[in-house]
Structure formats: structure tokens, C-alpha cells
Amino acid sequence: MTAIAKIKASVATPADRAGMIDWTAVADELASQGAAVMPALLTPEECREIAALYPDDKRFRSHVVMARHGFGKGEYKYFSYPLPDLIGGLRTSLYPRLAPIANEWNQRMGIDTRYPAEHQEFLALCHRAGQQRPTPLLLQYVPGDYNCLHQDLYGDLAFPLQVAILLSEPGRDFTGGEFVLTEQRPRMQTRPEVVPLRQGDAVVFAVHHRPVKGSRGSYRVNLRHGVSRIRSGRRHTVGVIFHDAK
């Protein structure tokens, strides 16, 4: 266990963990790359406990086999409400740190939408818009599986940032399976970014688009994310999406 993980293992609440993150560094990395790593957000034991939920269908509202929908190969399950305490707590605690970044991005891109300070306020807006189904999910990949490049948009309301936490250890539990982000700028070829993660690391990234400074002000670039082919072993990831779905 790393020194950071040892510290976080003794931290009682997700709010305390969120308070330990260098949010200035996260905002800077998001601004320059569209993604930022938050190391050791979960301990190895917590990662194993969350991954072990996968066979328990009572914890989930739906099960998606990617190949049936052209999403790639692999599968995932959407959690039901109430969410597991740790996942629900992180969703609630990370959102207020990310909302100012999202609002600043929208201002720069000329988008009128502004996000409330607290997650429950944002969920209330989602629910009034008919988006009432929880979106945090648990993904499972085995050899040959992959996730096609995509965007997680589930309705008219979509929070522009989301978080994925790697629950398995690269090189020990699986090989391959890198987190991949692509960025398409106007009149330019697509830029790929491979984000290295260890067990318990979280990556926060743009769901749809982000602002980039140009010679005439900021303009929007389009982003997609996915996972490269698993070569051996089994890979579990938990996705924390802040908007609910229709």
C-alpha cells in the first residue's frame, strides 16, 4: 500500500478524501489535457470489496452486454438506489469540487447552463426533467474485451465531468486494458491520450467537450473515452457519473 493509500485508509469519510485532493492541480490538468488522475482515491481493500459486488444482481438496476449494442466487448451493471455508501459518498463529495470547473468551462464556451453548488440540488433538476435512474456503474472485462470510444450522455441534463476508478491492479490482475481518451479539434486530426492508472486511482475527465484557448477566444473540442483490449486477466472499474438517466 502506498503512503497516500495508508493515509486515506484511515480517513473516515468521502468528504475528507475529497478535501485531500489538490484541486488546483486537477483543474490545471483538466484544462490542458481533458483528464486528471487522482491517485489512490480508494484503498486496495475497498477496490476488492466493490469489485466483489458484481455477481450480486440485487445491487443493480440493469445489466448491459456491450456486444449486443455495438459498444465493444465486455459488460457492465448500473447500480440501483440506494448506492453503496462509499460510491454514493464520493459522488456527493466530488461534485461540489467539480461544479466550479464545469461552470467556468461553460462560461468560456458560451453555454448558459450553470450547475448548482451541491449534488442533491443538481439531482433534483435531473429528476424534474424525468432523469431519475442512477448512473454509477460497475464494469467487468475479460481477455479480448474492450470498450469503444463513446460519451456517457443519458438525457437533456448532463454534467460535463465524470470519474472512473480502477479497481484492479495492472500487471497482476490484468494486462492491456488502458484507459483511452481522444480529442477532436476543428480542422485537426484526432489526438489520443492514454491515461496510466494503478489500483485505486481515479481519473476525472470531460464527458463531451471542453474549452481550448484559441487566437480568437475559447472554442469547443469534442472528447470520447474508451478502454483498449484486455490481453489477460480480469479488469473491474467503477464509473461515477453525476447526472441521472431517463
Automatic annotation (TrEMBL):
It comes from the Bacteria. One of its GO terms (molecular function) is metal ion binding. It holds the Pfam family Oxygenase-NA. Keywords: Iron, Metal-binding, Oxidoreductase. Residues 132-245 form the Fe2OG dioxygenase domain. Belongs to the iron/ascorbate-dependent oxidoreductase family. This is Proline hydroxylase. It comes from Phreatobacter stygius.
